[in-house]
User: Which sequence fits this backbone?
């Protein structure tokens, strides 16, 4: 029941603001759905067992007898863009 | 970041990485400045690849032993070249033997440069996504980039300290239905300056204090939750970069003090024009750009990557002052 009331509330909010360029209400719920990444767009993030702590990764690699693969970018690949 | 699509979404590469390596990802901006043991160790590896001379970037892909012997370095978005290089590195690894090593815990995290980790059990971590959209006759759709960079969803994180949230929500339970409560200027400004940025083609520039023309955000008590509404107008002095948009969302809080979010989701839709130093090739004119903000109740390690503009820690945490 709570969830239904919340959804009704959210829908009414989502349609309440006006898109000034076209004078139509913005469907924020639809916009939110359009924005969010698809499964295909997040394969690089979700299908690889990434570590974010280099020292811990080094410790893991040393313990497991594996090499370390390091992906370094200017701007964190997991959160700047 | 073409590597995301062409390298790290490639099934062969994913399989190879997960089977053969410990894969780690990082922001080289910190790594080439910080004096913690991990950064110093990394720089010694990068030096072996001829990277980072005169303070230049060390970005790219490295395969190394835990002792710090470089096996291979490559900076490419070509999956075939990447995989060939990694296989060559693996061959070298096999020839060297698989010696194990005991590495003690790191003692110096260097928080003068590095970002002190947030505590997800107390502080607030919000996932921020953004995407370029198009609007035709009032109908909003995803931008069809026809192969150009910038159509994918971009990812970031908004951080709010427990103390900031507690201060904001201390009187929230006293609100009656229909009553409004503005968000603290610090949080509203942080959202505007550091998160309503066009990062769909790379690292988008933050807005400066005097570029915030309007930044309003408030919640209104409803019967079961709080609706959140806001509006933002941001523009550079010469109007070469602008954003104007509206925000709508909802907040449901847990019982208790502070009133930690149970659900906090917001969507921003607006028009953005212009580009930054690292975000060239923007679409002409003001074009639809939208954002989602979603509170993460149980963030995973990858969700705890600091906000991009945390490089200027004081500026981020004291957003309304600087």
Assistant:
């Amino acid at each position: 029941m709570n969830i239904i009331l919340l959804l009704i509330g959210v829908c009414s909010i989502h349609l309440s603001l006006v898109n000034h360029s076209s004078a139509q209400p913005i469907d924020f719920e639809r916009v939110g759905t359009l924005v969010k990444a698809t499964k295909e767009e997040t394969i690089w993030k979700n299908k690889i067992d990434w570590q974010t702590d280099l020292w811990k990764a080094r410790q893991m690699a040393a313990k497991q007898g594996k090499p370390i693969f390091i992906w370094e970018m200017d701007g964190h690949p997991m959160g700047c863009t | 970041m073409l590597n995301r699509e062409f390298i790290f979404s490639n099934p062969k590469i994913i399989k190879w990485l997960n089977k053969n390596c410990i894969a780690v990802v990082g922001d080289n901006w910190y790594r080439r400045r910080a004096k913690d043991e991990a950064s110093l160790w990394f720089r010694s590896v990068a030096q072996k690849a001829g990277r980072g001379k005169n303070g230049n970037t060390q970005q790219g892909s490295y395969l190394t032993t835990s002792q710090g012997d470089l096996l291979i370095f490559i900076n490419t978005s070509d999956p075939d070249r990447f995989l060939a290089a990694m296989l060559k590195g693996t061959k070298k690894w096999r020839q060297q033997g698989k010696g194990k090593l005991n590495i003690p815990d790191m003692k110096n995290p260097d928080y003068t440069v590095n970002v002190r980790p947030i505590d997800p059990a107390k502080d607030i971590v919000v996932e921020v996504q953004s995407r370029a959209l198009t609007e035709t006759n009032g109908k909003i759709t995803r931008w069809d980039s026809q192969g150009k960079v910038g159509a994918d969803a971009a990812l970031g994180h908004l951080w709010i300290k427990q103390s900031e949230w507690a201060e904001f929500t201390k009187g929230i339970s006293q609100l009656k239905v229909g009553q409004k409560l503005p968000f603290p200027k610090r949080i509203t400004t942080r959202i505007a300056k550091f998160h309503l940025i066009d990062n769909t083609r790379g690292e988008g520039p933050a807005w400066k204090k005097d570029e915030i023309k309007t930044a309003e955000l408030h919640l209104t008590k409803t019967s079961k939750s709080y609706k959140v509404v806001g509006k933002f107008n941001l523009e550079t002095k010469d109007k070469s970069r602008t954003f104007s948009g509206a925000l709508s969302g909802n907040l449901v809080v847990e019982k208790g003090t502070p009133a930690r979010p149970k659900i906090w989701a917001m969507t921003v839709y607006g028009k953005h024009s212009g580009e930054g130093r690292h975000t060239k090739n923007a679409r002409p004119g003001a074009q639809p750009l939208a954002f989602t903000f979603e509170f993460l109740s149980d963030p995973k390690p990858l969700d705890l990557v600091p906000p991009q503009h945390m490089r200027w820690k004081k500026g981020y945490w004291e957003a309304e002052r600087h």
User: Anything to note?
Assistant: Chain A has four helices and four strands. The two ends of chain A are 38 Å apart (CA to CA).
